[in-house]
Amino acid sequence: MKYIKVNKLTVLLAFLGTVLIGCSDELDQPELNNNFAGGTDFSQTDDMILSLIGVYQSVADRGWEQPLVVATRGDDVNAAGDQQGLKNQDRYVYDNSFFGSRTLWETYYGDIIGAHTGMEQIERYMEFADDEGIALGNQYIAEAKVLRAVLLFQLSQVYGSVFIPTSSNLNDFADVTSVPSKDEVMQHISDQMDEAIPFLLDLRPNERTDLPGGVTKYTALMIKAEANQELENYQAVADAAGEIIASGKFTLFPDYYELFKTPGKLSDENLFEFQYSDFGNGEGDRVSHLYAPYGPNSWNPEVDGSSNGWGFFEPSLKYVEFMLDRGETERLETSVFFSQKGIDSLIASTPYTIETLPSFVSPITRDGDENTSTVRSIFSSGKHYLPTNQLIPGRTAYGSNKNNIVFRYSETLLMYAEALVQGANNSVMTADEAVNQVRARANMAPLSGVTLDQIVDEKYAELSMEWGKRFFDMVRLGRYDELSFDGRTFTEDKAFVTYHQDQIDEFPILGEIAN
């Protein structure tokens, strides 16, 4: 069994949280005008990193429902279980009283404001810093801009028009008279990354020794590419993705199955991931995310006592059929944790039989965990599954110690290829070369003269169950028929989730947009 070493960043996240929360609270106090703000001595410039760590901590500390609100639309995944608001959203029936959309908005904005708080603290430290400290402060502020951009990007993908905070001063929102459009938000994010990139480290995230896995210029380039893809500015996509490719720093992790498990933590493929850790110990402190919503609500784990999941997040039958028809092996095995009920449903609704299905289509994974679920969901997400034989002995929570990858190099390659096919120019490699790198790892035959349809299918196969990427692609490309499946009917006006009534009550202008 392979375990990673204890990570400096996650250690700091665990032990500095209370200190940083205290620092953040003090920014609202009048003492900020003094050298000492509520006990914070800004002349102690070595402590400047604490403000940055606070931003990392808040960005990674996501509630279980928030990634599901971002991800459970699209033909790769179904919302399952007993969360009716989530299930309604998955069918494009938006409920403005659903608690998940309220907490997504409130916590993301709380953490975006927190990022501004951190940047403002760093600026106070820089007043007392020497040239080296000022350079470090500029880097830390740039990192906070990137972390802020991750959240603002996802918020705008979900809601479309959203506010763009420019400081930690909540009075800025007292009498808002307009809300930036999605295009304006995406352009803002792209511009912010241009501001940040000159100050960021020219390293792969896992090359950092100060904060392993922390953001670098390549994280910012990836977010710039993502924002410009939403804007359909394909030349900017090709330029940003091409710079990542030309760096030669990133490679595809050779084992797709293990990429999403312990061996894939901080791999050379990952441009950004939310980091969690048990610190190699079976008890005591941990930095964690609640992965139970993604797991089967009943199972026979290989390691006795390992907790099951809740069955809220289910790969779609459409996706499974698509992958089988393509002859996919490792990517399908990785993405879907089958149950026998799911296999029976597959046989009942397709030409496949128990004899013609591949052997890996089994309720028992290669690591010996058996999905026995017969209610809530018929499949579970394999990308959010951590084999119980990779749990640190003593830990029992579903997926404990698992990171959550947000951006990875295979997506960079596929975005680059699509940009070229959409008319952009770049000479770092051809669209065929980019797509075939991704296909080669999946043991799929190379393509020649790759088309947009083939790239779209490749993204479906490669990026399923990851942050709603399939849904947002289909909306951007206007492929609404793909989203109208299994009794759903998608129309253009369903691209964005309805604002929660609490947000409309606080900002009536949102009601005007919603109507």
TrEMBL record:
Keywords: Cell outer membrane, Membrane, Signal. InterPro entries: SusD-like_N, SusD_RagB_dom, TPR-like_helical_dom_sf. It comes from the Bacteria. This is Starch-binding associating with outer membrane. Belongs to the SusD family. One of its GO terms (cellular component) is cell outer membrane. It is found in: Cell outer membrane. Residues 53-200 form the SusD-like N-terminal domain. Its main location: membrane. The keyword Signal applies. The keyword Membrane applies. Residues 299-482 form the RagB/SusD domain. It comes from Maribacter stanieri. Gene3D superfamilies: 1.25.40.390. Residues 1-24 form the signal peptide. It holds the Pfam family SusD_RagB.
